[in-house]
Model the fold of this input.
Amino acid sequence: KNAENTDADGAYTVEGVASVVCPSIVEIETYGDAKGEQLSGTGSGIISSEDGYIITNAHVAENDYYTVTKLVVNVNTTDPNNGTSVSTAYEADLLGSDTDTDLAVLKIKPDSDLPAAALGDSDKLSLGDDVVVIGNPLGLETSVSKGVVSGLNRQVYDDNSISAIQTDTAINSGNSGGGLFNMYGEVVGVVNMKLINDNAENLGFAITINDAKSVINDLITKGYVSGRPILGITCVQVSDYIGAVRGMTPGLVVTDIDQDMAIASSGLVVGDTITAINGTDVRTVDEVSEILKDKKPGDTVTATVVRTDSRGRDKSVDIEITLSEYTGN
Done:
């Protein structure tokens, strides 16, 4: 550590943080097939290992608008002879992405060891702590901005348990996937998004690195996030209104059952309508997810099922279903 850039506690100045961690932030270019494999977007990433693992957002690596056909990671290194910055482009493989947490891991094969960022402990953050964001807003490479921790444990997603750090640091499109650093040069968050709102200014969010660590580890080792339960069916959602209009039982009409999952031996059959799980009415897949979110693979649930017999009579049966593990999209 350069003494000029640190205080008595060993914390860096902003300049110090920037000089230490800028080489660990990369630019990610995505190429889509919509326009004949042309550059379609840019984002940021964090080098997490010397041999080329890169952390970023799932929405940087994949998106709903076009199929990503190629990912390119631009690594900035400084030429030791003359101090000039050299950018090297590497094609990257997507090891895994998780839309629930909006995290993804890429892998490149670098020519030499990369400067990996140190991962910190986001639980040690306090309101008002100084933080630095480094990324590529609007493609402006390794831009540095500084702010404070404005909020902790923000639940910015409706449907999952990931917690976020709120910061007033300037965050713009292209910062996604970059690093939120403490003043010791450690990654404490993965910059995720800016809440776009006409009335909002300086309202940025980063996924806590402590939440991200296990997700990143799973994506590297398995390609998916382990421990998430799934029923193992494909279904059609029938709302109360549609049910009334069409004379159908409201619920989830089973159209396919995954034969590789535990549900295959439960007695459920295609054509059954699941009306409730564990006594709670279900009409949508989201309602099922809400019931399953505190469960683990291997747990059992009781599905209330309406089945039509050969004479067209409806009968209700309870079926025990063992949950399987979700292994990716």
Q: What stands out?
A: The first helix runs from residue 14 to 21.
